[in-house]
Amino acid sequence: MRTCSVCFPKLASYNAFMSEKIVKLLLDDLKFVRIVCRKCGSAVELPIDKLQNATAAYCPGCPPPNKTLLRSSAADPLAGLASILIDLKQNKDIDIEFVVTETE
């Protein structure tokens, strides 16, 4: 993509180019949350609709004692995330879109 010479005259004079990849994901298409262990890189995938009531999930890659990735408690931030996502999915007036960009 070429830089617009009207919007960015200094950049355009250098014949600057920018490449950008964009991924758009609608909330309705989001079915799972992937929780990645920061110690070993292993992951656990949990369905969003089950995230609120999930029992403790342990990292499958860490040696014993396993690192707890998800706890089932009232203060669990993942339960709060699930609640918000479920409420937003039920709102028929709007769509929520997550946008992930990668600039080269």
Describe this structure in words.
There is one protein chain. The chain contains 3 helices and 6 strands; from the N terminus they run αβββαββαβ. With 104 residues, the chain is α+β, with helices and mostly antiparallel strands. A two-stranded antiparallel sheet has the order 1-6. β2 (32-36) and β3 form a beta hairpin. The model has no long low-confidence stretch (mean pLDDT 75).
Secondary-structure topology with pairs:
Blueprint: H1 9-13, E1 20-26, E2 32-36, E3 43-47, H2 48-51, E4 57-58, E5 68-70, H3 77-90, E6 97-103
Antiparallel strand pairs: 1-6, 2-3, 4-5
Short description:
The protein has 104 residues and is an alpha+beta fold.
